[in-house]
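Issue: copy button drops trailing tokens. Both records pasted manually instead:
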Amino acid sequence: MCGVVGIAGKSPVNQMLFDALTMLQHRGQDAAGIVTCQDGRLFLRKDTGMVRDVFHTRHMRALQGNYGIGHVRYPTAGSSSSAEAQPFYVNSPYGITLAHNGNLTNAAEIHDDLFKTDLRHMNTDSDSEVLLNVFAHELQKRPKLTPTADDIFHVVSRVHERCKGGYAVVAMITGQGLVGFRDPNGIRPLIYGSRETEKGVEYIIASESVAITALGFKVERDIAPGEAIYITADGVMSTKQCAAEPEYRPCIFEYVYFARPDATIDGISVYKARLKMGEKLAQKILREWGDEHDIDVVIPIPDTSRTSALELANMLGIKFREGFMKNRYIGRTFIMPGQQQRKKSVRQKLNPVELEFQGKNVLLVDDSIVRGTTCNEIIQMARDAGAKKVFFASAAPMVKYPNVYGIDMPAKSELIASDRSVEEIREIIGADRLIFQDLEDLKAAVRTKKVPELQDFDCSVFDGKYVAGGIDADYLTALEQKRNDSAKNDTPAYIDVNIDAASVDLTGVREE
């Protein structure tokens, strides 16, 4: 999962891009990058690390211009290298930079075709670089000094024809304008906003609404599945549906885990969806465990499960307590490369408040269970803190299948629920009781009457139905080889170069 932002401004955008990426930091902590444009020159800074660590004062001063795009990344495969930090750049035609959230499921096939047929070289294993080269190649087929909006929309339609999977893209065409588009199923989110200034209208495109509102922009709407938006260098905005058969099927896991609770995605409040998840889960507890459920206190596993856990406690009429204090300087455990590192990280990340556990039957609520590693450690921490019984509830259904659209759900063999029953999982994680959300209840929790056209979702990690198609056993086997723990420790085969806007721009070296 990644976060993207693009801004077409009337004044320097470096600070706005930095602030937007900070608001999207939860979507990726592995790497960050910004590229801006002024007078036909591009200025780029990208590196591994958090936004606050990648960009220092000297970098920000060097990022000149009123147009720019930014990206925060975490890797779904391979190493954490600055060579794979985004945005990516190609110099022809015009000079194009691109940032991407998602995953192309036919990237390997396109990679070969781009080299053999289109004669394009790529320096990384990133599917974002593949997507960029497809976009550039198709735009090069329509050579003009200044491309029209129709040219751009034709290029996006060709990208939709060639690229399969989930993707949300922002791209900047040097001296021409800013482009944003979304895959034909709308799997990955993308939204745009605007604001009036004394110099004219400014536009922003971002992964989540929080990046738009925090900068003082007005949210206009979500970019529809298959739709593209183009803002020229003169500030003229136009949109068009570029996919032949678009369908509205966004990733439901955005609402479960990835998006900030104060975000609105596809017209749906993430916060309200999580409240309803807690409500649905409470109803299932009453159905399956009855009124005599023996729960003394409900404790969330911070942070994303807090909203669901609070509503669950309210529905059951049970005390809600904060039983774990979180160290916010430890990374997300399920994207760490090794089991031992994940186990160590759990103990460093969470510390129990013993008073809330001693002598009590505790219901721990988490947003989901992926590998089960953290669940086992947390349950043992609760017992060590004095809990009499430890029950466990997941606000999401059983994660049985890997994700192929840009979320690092690991290899199928590493998913604790892939071939196990609820009882078998309960024994492995050491809980006294275990309950999962039903998939239909999860869908019902996310749906809203305000968006009647949105009835279906990509639920592939739960039901194995990959909405963009083209996924078979061979693909999943190859994916497992890329995503297992040993693969994430491999040395990259490409040159790792940190590009620093304080000393280098994309048109040559300059003295500082």
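Record 2 (pasted manually too):
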Amino acid sequence: MRESVIYQEIHEEGLLEGIQRGLQREISLVTRLLTRRVGELSPELEAQIQSLSVETLEDLGEALLDFTGVEDLVSWLGDHAG
């Protein structure tokens, strides 16, 4: 059964969905933490955050602890985003 093409496709789809859900949760958490730390985020900043790789998003999650204002976030994104 596990060797069948259909099983493999379903298994792969399930894994991808799980990864996507995990990424969305991480984006949501970092966004909530940033909002508490620096205030409301503009749609442009939210879009930039959503486009970050997992590794960069994790780095942002650590860096935000040092932020004192939205300017720090903008500067950090300028240095680290794409």
